[in-house]
């Protein structure tokens, strides 16, 4: 199987049967940190549970598992939307570390967000600089509505420049952190063979980089993957964006991180449905010493900024792979 064939197979149209496998397949197409896919699904009767897979955590970039639980929230939102399309009302409840989703039959309800699930991707590329119309901005902002979650939408160039300064400062701190860099490299898949072997991780061409043998890519990465070069890239990417959105929950705990994930996923799906691209620029929330300053700059006070995304109009890139349901479902 080629890379393109594997990417397409996970994104074929949603089928009614087998129900649980199909719902899990669509859930796994959710955004998640480093494409670690840190989830385990279990199904019993009319109930599907999503639990964290702590073996796939990223302790350097995500020491408190914040991004991991946000990722679970993203998956839960996909599952809820897919279930509705198949004629099931899905009711997620937080049970400790798990999200337990009860399914109840209901009239099928197709939606633009559910239709966007197979097409959504995180596009780590320079956008074309076009601004988004007010109605577009209203729709993406409304998509973020979730109890106890605030969305801060910024389109003014001065505000985006302010966020850019924090992104660059955070990126510099991370690139000087040896543990962060080791962890990041461990999740990069430099070519199709590596990506197909694991069906996870950050596929280099999905970030606009060439596919290379790992024996060549890793030495070249040390030569060309520099702090100044990456900061230049992020500056250009943010300058080309139509806007930035920051999500922040009222409290900083697992249930609220999951809520942020649901809002985050709806934002990405609504952006996709409207022809927009987006990507994460989470450096200001990932560097613990920088996070309080970033929060203050946004007027959040003691609240934690959870997720930072830029959006705009840009190119299609290769989509990342997902492990098939059989590898993420447990009895």
TrEMBL record:
InterPro entries: Nitroreductase-like. This is Tat pathway signal protein.
């Amino acid at each position: 199987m080629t890379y393109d064939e594997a990417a397409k197979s996970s994104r074929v149209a949603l089928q009614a049967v087998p129900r649980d496998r199909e719902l899990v397949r669509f859930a796994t197409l959710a955004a998640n940190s480093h494409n670690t896919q840190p989830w385990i699904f279990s199904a019993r009767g009319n109930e599907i549970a999503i639990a964290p897979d702590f073996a796939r955590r990223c302790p350097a970039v995500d020491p408190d598992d914040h991004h991991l639980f946000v990722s679970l929230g993203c998956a839960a939102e996909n599952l809820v939307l897919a279930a509705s399309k198949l004629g099931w009302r899905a009711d997620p409840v937080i049970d400790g570390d798990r999200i337990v989703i009860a399914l109840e039959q209901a009239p099928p309800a197709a939606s633009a967000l559910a239709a966007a699930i197979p097409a959504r991707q995180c596009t780590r590329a320079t956008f074309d600089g076009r601004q988004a119309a007010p109605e577009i901005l209203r729709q993406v902002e409304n998509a973020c509505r979730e109890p106890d979650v605030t969305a801060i939408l910024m389109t003014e160039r001065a505000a985006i420049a302010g966020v850019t300064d924090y992104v660059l400062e955070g990126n510099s701190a991370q690139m000087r952190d040896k543990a962060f860099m080791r962890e990041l490299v461990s999740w990069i898949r430099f070519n199709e063979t590596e990506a197909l072997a694991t069906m996870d991780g950050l596929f280099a061409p999905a970030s606009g980089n060439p596919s290379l043998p790992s024996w060549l890519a890793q030495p070249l990465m040390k030569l060309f993957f520099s702090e100044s070069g990456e900061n230049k890239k992020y500056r250009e990417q943010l300058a080309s964006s139509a806007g930035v959105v920051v999500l922040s929950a009222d409290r900083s705990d697992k249930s609220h991180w999951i809520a942020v994930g649901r809002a985050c996923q709806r934002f990405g799906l609504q952006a996709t449905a409207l022809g927009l691209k987006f990507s994460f620029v989470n450096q200001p929330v990932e560097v613990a010493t920088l996070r309080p300053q970033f929060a203050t700059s946004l007027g959040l006070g003691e609240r934690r900024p959870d997720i930072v995304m830029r959006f705009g109009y840009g190119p299609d890139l290769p989509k990342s792979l997902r492990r098939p349901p059989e590898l993420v479902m447990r009895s």
